[in-house]
Amino acid sequence: MQRSANNENFLKLFARNSDSVDMKKLLLIWVIAGAALAGMAGCAQIKKPAGQVRAVPVGVRFDQVGSVTLYPGEPCTPQIMFNFRSAGSTVWLAAPKHETKTLTEAAKNNGRVHISGKWRRGGQSNCSYVEVTSAEVTR
Asked: Could you please report the per-residue DSSP string of the chain?
């Protein structure tokens, strides 16, 4: 009888330890799965909002002062190389070689520029940009 009671106690203790190990394994699996999902979510690319919504008639003159940055993605037409910010809006710019040098330097130095040009339209319906005819660094 004594031996049977000892065996029964041993089996109960073993069962408790086995449940505890299973719970620890399950918890560890959930922690690893959560960390993996969090890591994948951190790698997801953030979609940038459309830079420009308004449609401006082609050929309208553009003349403003603001700041310029290099265009950070793939534009809707290959001529676009710069973002121009002025008065709370962003305009895409395309420029010939001489003006491109001026705009690139202004972008590197966070300088303000005076832009003159004309509105153009790319191949897509929502692809309006300014073709720069003059770019001057201002103070």
From this structure: -HHHHHHHHHHHHHHHHHHHHHHHHHHHHHHHHHHHHHHHHHHSPPPPPPS------TT-EEEEEEEEEE--S--SSTTEEEEEEETTEEEEEE--HHHHHHHHHHHHTT-EEEEEEEEEE-SSTT-EEEEEEEEEEE-
Q: Percent of the chain having pLDDT more than 70? A: 69
**CATH code for the domain defined by 61-138:** 2.40.50.200
**Would you list the domain boundaries of the chain?**
1-44, 61-138
26-49 confidence digits (pLDDT tens): 777 877 876 666 666 665 555 444
